[in-house]
Amino acid sequence: MELLVAFSTNDGETVFADDHAGMARYFDVYRFGEDGAEFVERRENSKYGGDERMRHGDPKKAKESLSALEGVHVWASVRFGPNLPRLLKKVACVVVRVHTIEQAVELIQANLDAVAEEYARGEERKHMVLRPE
């Protein structure tokens, strides 16, 4: 099974860790499959720099971030906010306990079957936490 996975980032090298996943400037999208992972594209976060009056957990924030993730199956970041239950209805959310995108890609690839199984659970999804062994 192929999965499209978006990584929250500000610079394309590190996984965004300064705030919740939806506060990153970009989402770097990778295609994962049995043969490995490949970079597909960088998407701008339409919410980045948006209405700062919206509080964390505002449903509009979740909707705006998800609009940039159209077609993505999995969202990976260091931290998710109070919108996590809303996000899980649309994508699988994976907390990665690593610093770089390269490390996060390796972590997802090493756990691809488990990530795919969680995505397949649909609206019954739970978030996952992945750490290097």
Task: Note the main sheet.
Answer: 6 strands, mixed
Number of strands: 6
Radius of gyration: 13 Å
User: What are the low-pLDDT stretches, counting only 5+ consecutive residues below 50?
Assistant: none
Q: Terminal Cα separation, in Å?
A: 24 Å
Please tell me the overall pLDDT: 90
Q: Topology, please?
A:
Elements: E1 3-9, E2 26-33, E3 36-44, H1 59-67, E4 74-77, H2 84-88, E5 92-96, H3 101-110, H4 112-120, E6 128-130
Parallel strand pairs: 1-4, 4-5, 5-6
Antiparallel strand pairs: 1-2, 2-3
Report on this model:
The mean pLDDT is 90. 25% of the residues lie in helices and 27% in strands. The protein has one domain: Nucleotidyltransferase, domain 5 (2-Layer Sandwich), CATH 3.30.420. The protein has a six-stranded mixed β-sheet. Strand 4, helix 2 and strand 5 form a beta-alpha-beta unit. The chain has 133 residues and is α/β, with parallel strands linked by helices. The protein is globular and about 35 Å long. It has four helices and six strands; from the N terminus they run βββαβαβααβ.
Condensed summary:
This protein has helices spanning 59-67, 84-88, 101-110, 112-120, and strands at residues 3-9, 26-33, 36-44, 74-77, 92-96, 128-130.
Keywords:
25% helix; globular; Nucleotidyltransferase, domain 5; alpha/beta; 133 residues; single chain; 6 strands; six-stranded mixed sheet
